[in-house]
Amino acid sequence: MLSQNIDAGKFETLIEINTLINSDYSDPKALLTRILESATRLTAGEASSLLLLNSENNKLYFEISLGSKGPDVQQFSLNLGEGIAGWVAQNNRSLIVNDVEKDKRFFADISEQIGFSTKSILAVPMRIKEQCVGVIEIINKTDGALFEQEDLEWLEVFANQAALAIVNARSFQKVQNEVSFLRGQIDERQYSTFVGRSEAIRSCLSIAHKAAVTDSSVLITGESGAGKELVAEQIHMNSHRRGGPFIRVNCAALPESLIESELFGHVKGAFTDAAQDRRGRFELADGGTIFLDEIGEVPLNVQAKLLRVIQSRVFERVGSSEPMSSDVRIIAATNRNLAKSIENNSFRRDLYYRLNVLPITVPALRERQEDVPLLAEHFLKLYSAEMNKKITGFSSEAMEILMRYEWPGNVRELQNVIERAVVLAGNEKLQAEDLMLMQDATESSSIYQGRTLKEAINLFKRHFVTDTLKKNGGVQKHAARELGIQRTYLSRLIKELNISLTNENEEY
Ligand SMILES: Nc1ncnc2c1ncn2[C@@H]1O[C@H](COP(=O)(O)OP(=O)(O)OP(=O)(O)O)[C@@H](O)[C@H]1O
Fold it and tell me: What is the whole-number distance in angstroms between the Cα of residue 194 and the centre of ligand 1?
């Protein structure tokens, strides 16, 4: 029980923390840091640590450490029973040690190695359902005084709050994992309808069907939006793995820091936010196919790991040395010229050869213009049903424009044009102006007439940048590369030239 003389400031801090615990599960580390900071302040501590017990190896890890040597402490861990914190965890009991020199349980190594003079320690267990899951310890009182029973009682209250925050964070993480797993499962079942009758696409599909019966890696190349992912789906669906999962990974959409754990998973405690073990995409793809889109964007260190998976089907979760294996077929895709990337050492040659066992090129839409009407009808049906509009077809002028257009953004651009047109359409048939392609198709030097040089240059820049963005499916990084400019400069141009980022131009 807490002493009778209750300090209003302490209670206010507690209420504040309670509110945080009940309102925000998204950043457990920040919350635990807040709790530890308050506990340290209210017990007038000089330094403090929050240690978490890993139940698999019975080690205590310094999750958060405050004070002048805080960052140095975090490289250490303690065995259960080792040091004051280890004793507290093992015995599940709080402890005040006001003179560590006289206590045999004190483990002096850490203080000596970091050059911090520890005199007294107050340590309490954090408990979930009576089980100790970690320890909070406060080191030295700033005024040199001794820790008292009241400090211990307050710290126990804070330790309970911290335990609650950990329970919440773990349940939250568990639910998130479940959601991402279920999303993956839903994705697996959602395959697109493949549309196309041109000679070029038929020959591409015929190679894909031949590739499907083998288990070899496939590298699909082709411009952005040409349909590489759909070809990958076709391979999976025509393979003996069709009953297994089809796991998509857009390597360009993952930040470098996450890509490894996303692919191979991680174990609890591998990094700050890793509150739970998590399966990676390779594990999820077991028995099926993994589709690595934009493989050219994978950083070199992860390329080395991919090479190993391809060679031996073996990998480790981040933070673990236990080898795992997964029975997967790998299909990779890129719109980059990987030969160039190999030349400038941003892509491994050995990985390229391993992936490129069966190369497939998806032809650009302008090389198979006869597929345009089929695809256009297909998307028209799709979107008019989705938007509940009765549109039966295209006016002849609209179809002529679709056929004449070059489609730098390929099928994705066509799809977006039709979606936008269905939104705009006011007639039973889609009209030329609904497509909003007229300007692009009829662009000529006449649009520059009567303008100053500066205006004309800006107009040109605007169209050029817009087209390049479209062609690159809206991925600014790729557009900047093609334009030969820095990405930051591209963002500035987009702002200055007032280029609107419609769906297809949006960064993803
Ligand atoms: N033959 C096709 N039939 C029907 N829809 C298609 C076809 N080809 C592409 N699409 C559609 O066009 C869009 C772009 O296709 P996809 O994502 O497969 O292109 P991609 O080449 O993988 O592009 P990126 O290089 O940008 O990843 C998707 O919405 C897809 O459903």
Answer: 9
Q: Can you tell me the ipTM of this complex?
A: 0.98
What spacing in Å lies between the alpha carbon of 128 and ligand 1's midpoint? 49
Average pLDDT along the chain, 508 residues, taken 10 residues at a time? 62 78 72 88 93 89 92 90 96 96 92 92 94 95 92 90 84 72 60 91 95 94 95 95 91 83 80 69 93 94 92 86 90 92 94 93 96 96 92 93 91 94 89 76 52 75 85 86 87 83 44
For the stretch 196-220, what's the b/e string if a residue is b when 16 or more beta carbons lie within 10 angstroms of its beta carbon?
bebebbeebbebbeebbeeeebbbb
Give the binding-site residues of ligand 1, using a 6 Å CB cut-off.
192-196, 222, 224-230, 293, 333, 335, 375, 411-412, 415, 473
Is residue 123 within 8 A of residue 137, CB to CB? The reply is yes
Testing ligand 1's pocket by substitution, the residue of 187, 192, 297, 470 carrying the most ligand atoms inside 8 A of its CB is 192
Q: Domain 8-172 is of which CATH architecture? A: 2-Layer Sandwich (3.30)
For residue 296, give the nearest of 481, 431, 77 by alpha carbon.
481
Which fold would CATH assign to domain 370-439? Helicase, Ruva Protein; domain 3 (1.10.8)
Fold of 199-363: Rossmann fold (3.40.50)
Give the span between the Cα atoms of 193 and 457, in whole angstroms.
43
Give this prediction's pTM: 0.57
